Amino acid sequence: MLLNAASNNTSNLTWEAGNASIINSSIDFDISKPNVLNLDCCKLDFYFCIKVTVKDVNCNVCEKVVCIEKKPEPCEIKVNNVKESYCTNDAVNISWNGNTPSGLVNVYAIPASGGGAILLAGNQPDTGSFTWNIPSTIKPCDRQWNIVIANVDKPEECFDRSNTFTIKCCETTCDCGDWKTDSIHISEILHDEPNPDTEQFSADLKCSEKVKLLNNHSYQFTAPLYTCNPENCDAEFKWSILNSAGQNTQGSGSSFNYTFNQLGNYEVTFTPICGGKECKPCTIMVSVVKGIFPNPHQTYSTKK
Questions:
Q1: What CATH superfamily classification does 176-302 receive?
Q2: 76-168 domain in CATH 2.60.40.10?
């Protein structure tokens, strides 16, 4: 027995054509609700009855009326409490109990004072859990929010919200971390046309190593890479060049240029700074010597 397609599936039920057969126990019917009952404005209880009349070979008649009430599948969502406050970049672990007919939910963050909702996840599988990483760009600070879990179909009929929580724009505390690389890079700066018989000097020196450089020559020094803790804190650098007479030249930045105008021994130091705190420095020793042409670079790098 099927809905009559000629009536646009709105009312009549008709038997399918088939061959007569003996029924000893039961028979299954596939019955769908008429399309006209798909109303967005209303909840639906689908109620129908089937009257079965059986006549045996002796013309004895038996009738049976079976009524069935088809209610919508239950939709139950209960959002569990989250923490009372979070900082930007924190992870909000959201969980809920219950089930939805579609097996899908939408996850929202909604300002408690009203305003536009943020869709965190659409058509999310109804697994009972979701993690929201609060972006650092969310504004304003110290605003109160709720998490809302809603059924994808007719969300206004099946949803729940969490307790109210606050998102704070907390200041990130930066601390010292580690050197990601351990070598200071040195490259010679050529002011004139390069001599084809002379190679431009370039080297990477590990912290505490020594190098020989030429007097009255200019060089660029570049600091190793440094990672603060946490990694989203950016490291700043200060540098210094200390000569044997105790004269100290200082500056800031991860790279600088310097010209040695006096012979002697120098200490070149890069100090990383995380959150205003000076961390473990990296220092190399430089011995400034007179150049011997045509190949003054052959004795540059020597370990301590």
A1: Immunoglobulins (2.60.40.10)
A2: yes
Residue from 100, 108, 148, 147 nearest 126 by CA:
100
Between β-strands 282-289 and 226-229, what pairing exists: parallel, antiparallel or unpaired?
unpaired
pTM, whole model, 2 decimals?
0.47
Q: What was the pLDDT predicted at 301?
A: 42
CA distances from 181 to 13, 35, 227, 237, 269 (A): 79, 68, 10, 15, 15
Give 114's DSSP letter: -
Closest CA to 125 of 148, 109, 94, 102: 102
**C-alpha–C-alpha distance, residues 264 and 273, integer Å:** 29
In whole angstroms, give the CA distance from residue 108 to residue 105.
10
DSSP-based three-state secondary structure for 253: coil
Cβ–Cβ < 8 Å for 157, 102: no
How many C-beta atoms surround the C-beta of residue 251 within 10 A?
11
* CA distances in angstroms from 242 to 212, 213, 255, 260, 269, listed in the order given: 15, 15, 16, 12, 8
Query: Which residue did the predictor score with more confidence, 281 or 36?
Result: 281
> 208: closest CA among 238, 187, 231, 179?
179
Provide the residue ranges of all domains of the chain, joining segments of one domain with +: 2-70, 76-168, 176-302
**End-to-end Cα distance, the chain:** 95
Q: How confident is the model at residue 54 (pLDDT cuts 50, 70, 90)?
A: confident
